């Protein structure tokens, strides 16, 4: 099964695997960074840490503010939607606290539902929906 581009198998066909012997059990392939070793030795150099900004706490803050606003008016729905999106992003990132992201998602969904309820009530009260 070959075509003019040289493909000889389907993209879903199994790929042959070759197993070779691995490294010795006593061998350690990882060596610490020179900066981290210098910091541990007391040279005063700080270790290089690649930190990513956290979005989970901001999602939780936005969800709480949107939930409080949704108890009084329905115009907090944009902030609630932003909190839902930020919570989903936080859930998909491995560096985020999952419990915090789940709480922010639950609170943001509640805020969205409460705000939507207020907006539907407004629409019926002022004869916009009939």
UniProtKB/TrEMBL annotation:
UniProt keyword terms in alphabetical order: Membrane, Transmembrane, Transmembrane helix
Chain ranges passing through the membrane: 58-91, 100-124
Region (Disordered): 1-23
Protein name, as recorded: DUF4190 domain-containing protein
């Amino acid at each position: 099964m070959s075509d003019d581009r040289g493909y000889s198998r389907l993209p879903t066909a199994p790929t042959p695997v070759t197993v070779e012997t691995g490294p010795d059990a006593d061998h350690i392939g990882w060596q610490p960074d020179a900066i981290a070793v210098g910091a541990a030795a007391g040279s005063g150099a700080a270790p290089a840490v690649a930190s990513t900004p956290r979005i989970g706490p901001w999602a939780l803050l936005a969800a709480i503010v949107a939930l409080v606003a949704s108890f009084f008016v329905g115009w907090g729905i944009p902030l609630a939607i932003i909190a839902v999106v930020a919570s989903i992003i936080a859930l998909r990132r491995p560096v985020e606290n999952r419990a915090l992201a789940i709480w922010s998602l639950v609170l943001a969904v509640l805020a969205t539902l409460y705000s939507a309820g207020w907006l539907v009530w407004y629409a019926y009260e002022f004869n916009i929906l009939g």
